[in-house]
Specification:
Strands 1, 2, 7, 8, 9, 10, 19 and 20 form an eight-stranded mixed β-sheet that branches. The protein starts with a strand and ends in a 12-residue tail after the last strand. The protein has about 475 residues and is of the alpha+beta class. It is built from 15 helices and 23 strands. The protein is about 30% helix and about 25% strand. Helix 1 packs parallel to helix 4 and helix 9 runs antiparallel to helix 10.
Amino acid sequence: MNQERQVVVVGGGPAGSTAAALLARQGFDVQLLERTRFPRYHIGESLLPSLLPVLDVLGARDAVENHGFVRKTGAFYGWGGQEWPLGFDEPGRPAAYSFQVVRAEFDQLLLDHARRSGAEIREETPVSRVALEGGSDGRAGEVHWSTRGGGSGRTGFGFLVDASGRAGLLSARQLRTRRFHEAFRNVATWAYWRGARPLAAAPSGAIGVFSLPEHGWFWAIPLHDGTLSVGLVTDKRSFNDARNEHGGSLDAVYHQALTRCPLLAGMLSGGRQVSPLKVESDYSYVSDEFCGPGWFLAGDAACFLDPLLSTGVHLAMYSGLLAAAAIGSVLRAEIDETQARRYYQIAYRNAYERLLVLVSAFYRIHDGRDAYFRQAQTLSSRDQSGLRLHESFLNIVTGAEDLHDARRDPVAVFLRKLRPADGDAARRPGLGGHGTSQLVPLPTTEEHAAAGLLLTLDPYPRLRPARTRHPHRDPAE
């Protein structure tokens, strides 16, 4: 079976559903191919307030609001021997709340929204490869797919959005342009609990983040099905050492770590674990290029960070929106494809790199952590190789006097910006978009222009020429 579409999206998660819905709502012919049948399980349950404006643009805010997810009004940190709550109702936040979501249900809502928006959704249709004209540097023009019933086919397209997640159809499997960060070669182990006690000092629906006295930290996320998602994150060396000490038992590693976290252990003292443990490792990576002739990588297909930031869904939907704006603008002949790709590469990568710097900075900012673990989570020269961190961070480290320092060590500059002058724990920053939401805004102002282009949302996401040029954000200038 051979078909032709203006746009093919591979993957029905938040990145793919966002791109498909936004393009279909503009009248473009969009086909989305998803390898599984939704709903399906996924980790990444804590959303940032900065995601709500993306839901507004998508037109899916009401569906999420009305579903019954836990409303997340802040975060609570038990980190480095100190405790402090953070509310989202402080001035400057993009919203006073966000959500803790069961991802199977949240992702289903977004995929159904894409279907209602006019995209053709084909589940249980895995894509085996993308045909590239003339080899790896050639233009993408066709995907080869199969069906559960044994059928197969090809779909030609004008543009491809690869939102295939960690599987990385293009970046990991075909082009092999994905590289892992040495700093965050961590292991996450998690399970679900019932009967846990809430933290009295935490804002309603808050995520709890608790550091261990030695290696790693825990998350605790309350969900509307009555469970608490509790995950342990530690570096790979420490995880393997602990597992060897316990005769290879994953459960023993997890439960022994809980005994070293009194705050969390107190929450769980009257509860019970109701699911087997799940494990992921080596999940922090970035692709050398986020786009190429005829294709755009979105969400986890392009990059993923340490879960300390809780930015996975935000980056997914953020990139889906940028991809839809870039592709739609080219299909309407408002800009050329080279401009659109340059904009996408700069805008998406800058957002990712700012957050990459932040997570490394937070691991270093608070005292009371094991020296090896702190060092293991610090960006190495290899991690920073190929990144333009000083340029990505210019809209955060303000002032001309900082520019030279930022070129040498953007993390050190950011540490100075984040540390409260008076040491007041209540004013200590949160994690990622929790405490510094200016890190992940929609890039709709002139100061966020890239490659001479600016994202505008009215009447739909598109790119237009900016009034002000920002040469430092355009590698070609």
